[in-house]
Model the fold of this input.
Amino acid sequence: MINIIVFSLVGLGVLFSVIRLLKGPTTADRVVALDTFNVIVIGVIALLAYQFENSLYLDIAIVYAILAFIETIVFARYVEGNHGDC
Amino acid sequence: MEIVSYVFMIIGGVFYLLGGLGILRMPDTFDRIQAGTKATTLGAFALLIGIGIANPDWLLKVFLIIIFIAISNPIGSSALAKAAYKSGALPSNLVQDDLKELFGGEDDDVN
Done:
Protein backbone atom coordinates (compact mmCIF):
# COMPACT_ATOMS: atom_id res chain seq x y z
CA MET A 1 0.00 0.00 0.00
CA ILE A 2 2.79 2.42 0.94
CA ASN A 3 4.53 1.49 -2.29
CA ILE A 4 1.55 2.49 -4.40
CA ILE A 5 1.23 5.89 -2.68
CA VAL A 6 4.92 6.78 -2.91
CA PHE A 7 5.29 5.50 -6.47
CA SER A 8 2.30 7.54 -7.63
CA LEU A 9 3.62 10.73 -5.98
CA VAL A 10 7.07 10.24 -7.51
CA GLY A 11 5.53 9.31 -10.86
CA LEU A 12 3.59 12.58 -10.95
CA GLY A 13 6.85 14.43 -10.31
CA VAL A 14 8.49 12.58 -13.20
CA LEU A 15 5.51 13.36 -15.43
CA PHE A 16 5.63 17.11 -14.69
CA SER A 17 9.35 17.39 -15.27
CA VAL A 18 9.10 15.43 -18.53
CA ILE A 19 6.35 17.78 -19.73
CA ARG A 20 8.64 20.76 -19.03
CA LEU A 21 11.50 18.89 -20.72
CA LEU A 22 9.40 18.45 -23.87
CA LYS A 23 7.89 21.96 -24.11
CA GLY A 24 10.55 24.19 -22.50
CA PRO A 25 10.92 27.41 -24.49
CA THR A 26 14.71 27.67 -24.29
CA THR A 27 17.52 25.16 -24.00
CA ALA A 28 18.29 26.27 -20.44
CA ASP A 29 14.76 25.31 -19.34
CA ARG A 30 15.19 21.86 -20.83
CA VAL A 31 18.51 21.35 -19.06
CA VAL A 32 17.02 22.43 -15.71
CA ALA A 33 14.12 20.02 -16.22
CA LEU A 34 16.61 17.26 -17.07
CA ASP A 35 18.56 17.95 -13.85
CA THR A 36 15.38 17.66 -11.77
CA PHE A 37 14.41 14.52 -13.68
CA ASN A 38 17.78 12.94 -12.84
CA VAL A 39 17.42 13.60 -9.11
CA ILE A 40 13.90 12.12 -9.18
CA VAL A 41 15.16 9.03 -11.03
CA ILE A 42 17.77 8.45 -8.28
CA GLY A 43 14.87 8.25 -5.82
CA VAL A 44 12.96 5.91 -8.13
CA ILE A 45 15.94 3.53 -8.30
CA ALA A 46 16.21 3.56 -4.50
CA LEU A 47 12.48 2.82 -4.29
CA LEU A 48 13.00 -0.14 -6.64
CA ALA A 49 15.67 -1.41 -4.23
CA TYR A 50 13.10 -1.19 -1.43
CA GLN A 51 10.40 -2.85 -3.52
CA PHE A 52 12.47 -5.83 -4.70
CA GLU A 53 14.53 -6.03 -1.46
CA ASN A 54 17.75 -6.13 -3.44
CA SER A 55 20.56 -3.82 -2.38
CA LEU A 56 22.25 -4.02 -5.78
CA TYR A 57 19.94 -1.25 -7.00
CA LEU A 58 21.60 1.17 -4.57
CA ASP A 59 24.91 0.67 -6.40
CA ILE A 60 23.11 1.53 -9.62
CA ALA A 61 21.76 4.66 -7.92
CA ILE A 62 25.29 5.74 -6.92
CA VAL A 63 26.58 5.30 -10.48
CA TYR A 64 23.54 7.12 -11.87
CA ALA A 65 24.14 10.03 -9.47
CA ILE A 66 27.74 10.39 -10.65
CA LEU A 67 26.74 10.25 -14.33
CA ALA A 68 23.91 12.74 -13.76
CA PHE A 69 26.32 15.22 -12.17
CA ILE A 70 28.75 14.95 -15.10
CA GLU A 71 25.85 15.32 -17.52
CA THR A 72 24.60 18.48 -15.79
CA ILE A 73 28.05 20.09 -15.90
CA VAL A 74 28.56 19.19 -19.56
CA PHE A 75 25.15 20.55 -20.60
CA ALA A 76 25.79 23.72 -18.59
CA ARG A 77 29.04 24.24 -20.49
CA TYR A 78 27.14 23.65 -23.72
CA VAL A 79 24.38 26.14 -22.90
CA GLU A 80 26.93 28.72 -21.81
CA GLY A 81 28.27 29.02 -25.34
CA ASN A 82 31.76 28.70 -26.72
CA HIS A 83 34.67 30.61 -25.28
CA GLY A 84 37.13 29.19 -27.74
CA ASP A 85 38.60 26.03 -26.23
CA CYS A 86 37.47 25.07 -22.77
CA MET B 1 10.00 1.79 13.28
CA GLU B 2 8.12 1.02 10.07
CA ILE B 3 5.80 3.94 10.69
CA VAL B 4 8.78 6.33 10.83
CA SER B 5 10.14 5.00 7.54
CA TYR B 6 6.70 5.31 5.93
CA VAL B 7 6.43 8.93 7.10
CA PHE B 8 9.88 9.74 5.67
CA MET B 9 9.03 8.07 2.35
CA ILE B 10 5.75 9.97 2.02
CA ILE B 11 7.52 13.26 2.83
CA GLY B 12 10.07 12.46 0.10
CA GLY B 13 7.36 11.63 -2.41
CA VAL B 14 5.46 14.83 -1.65
CA PHE B 15 8.60 16.92 -2.11
CA TYR B 16 9.38 15.17 -5.39
CA LEU B 17 5.84 16.01 -6.52
CA LEU B 18 6.29 19.65 -5.45
CA GLY B 19 9.61 19.84 -7.29
CA GLY B 20 8.03 18.56 -10.49
CA LEU B 21 5.10 20.94 -10.05
CA GLY B 22 7.49 23.86 -9.55
CA ILE B 23 9.38 22.90 -12.69
CA LEU B 24 6.10 22.89 -14.61
CA ARG B 25 4.47 26.01 -13.16
CA MET B 26 7.24 28.54 -12.42
CA PRO B 27 7.39 31.48 -14.83
CA ASP B 28 11.07 31.82 -15.77
CA THR B 29 14.32 29.88 -15.82
CA PHE B 30 15.80 30.99 -12.49
CA ASP B 31 12.60 30.23 -10.58
CA ARG B 32 12.64 26.79 -12.16
CA ILE B 33 16.24 26.22 -11.08
CA GLN B 34 15.37 27.20 -7.52
CA ALA B 35 12.19 25.10 -7.29
CA GLY B 36 13.61 22.09 -9.05
CA THR B 37 16.91 21.67 -7.27
CA LYS B 38 15.97 22.64 -3.71
CA ALA B 39 12.71 20.69 -3.53
CA THR B 40 14.11 17.57 -5.11
CA THR B 41 17.21 17.69 -2.87
CA LEU B 42 15.02 17.61 0.25
CA GLY B 43 12.81 14.96 -1.35
CA ALA B 44 15.82 12.76 -2.12
CA PHE B 45 17.15 13.11 1.44
CA ALA B 46 13.81 12.19 3.03
CA LEU B 47 13.12 9.29 0.68
CA LEU B 48 16.59 7.78 1.05
CA ILE B 49 16.54 8.15 4.85
CA GLY B 50 13.15 6.41 4.89
CA ILE B 51 14.53 3.53 2.83
CA GLY B 52 17.60 3.34 5.10
CA ILE B 53 15.42 3.17 8.22
CA ALA B 54 13.28 0.43 6.67
CA ASN B 55 16.39 -1.67 5.93
CA PRO B 56 19.15 -0.81 8.43
CA ASP B 57 21.72 -2.87 6.53
CA TRP B 58 21.65 -0.36 3.68
CA LEU B 59 22.40 2.73 5.76
CA LEU B 60 26.01 3.03 4.58
CA LYS B 61 25.15 3.08 0.88
CA VAL B 62 22.18 5.37 1.52
CA PHE B 63 24.36 7.90 3.32
CA LEU B 64 26.90 7.66 0.50
CA ILE B 65 24.19 8.63 -2.01
CA ILE B 66 22.95 11.43 0.30
CA ILE B 67 26.44 12.90 0.71
CA PHE B 68 27.05 12.77 -3.01
CA ILE B 69 23.75 14.51 -3.80
CA ALA B 70 24.46 17.14 -1.14
CA ILE B 71 27.81 17.89 -2.77
CA SER B 72 26.92 17.66 -6.44
CA ASN B 73 23.45 19.24 -6.66
CA PRO B 74 24.38 22.81 -5.54
CA ILE B 75 27.42 22.75 -7.84
CA GLY B 76 25.25 21.69 -10.76
CA SER B 77 22.54 24.25 -10.05
CA SER B 78 25.01 27.13 -9.71
CA ALA B 79 26.68 26.10 -12.98
CA LEU B 80 23.24 25.97 -14.60
CA ALA B 81 22.32 29.42 -13.26
CA LYS B 82 25.54 30.94 -14.60
CA ALA B 83 25.04 29.24 -17.95
CA ALA B 84 21.42 30.41 -18.15
CA TYR B 85 22.48 34.00 -17.41
CA LYS B 86 25.21 33.87 -20.03
CA SER B 87 22.84 32.41 -22.61
CA GLY B 88 20.59 35.45 -22.26
CA ALA B 89 17.79 34.35 -19.91
CA LEU B 90 16.64 37.06 -17.51
CA PRO B 91 14.17 36.92 -14.61
CA SER B 92 10.68 38.11 -15.54
CA ASN B 93 10.43 41.01 -13.04
CA LEU B 94 14.06 42.10 -12.90
CA VAL B 95 14.74 45.36 -11.04
CA GLN B 96 18.52 45.67 -10.98
CA ASP B 97 21.15 43.69 -12.86
CA ASP B 98 24.49 43.76 -11.06
CA LEU B 99 25.97 40.92 -13.07
CA LYS B 100 25.91 42.99 -16.25
CA GLU B 101 29.06 44.86 -15.18
CA LEU B 102 30.79 41.59 -14.37
CA PHE B 103 29.81 39.60 -17.44
CA GLY B 104 29.21 42.49 -19.86
CA GLY B 105 31.02 42.83 -23.17
CA GLU B 106 31.91 40.24 -25.72
CA ASP B 107 35.40 39.30 -24.57
CA ASP B 108 34.34 37.96 -21.18
CA ASP B 109 36.35 35.13 -19.72
CA VAL B 110 35.16 35.39 -16.13
CA ASN B 111 34.99 31.88 -14.74
Chain B has a mean pLDDT of 85. Chain B has one domain: 2-87. Chain B touches chain A through 50 residues (CB under 8 Å).
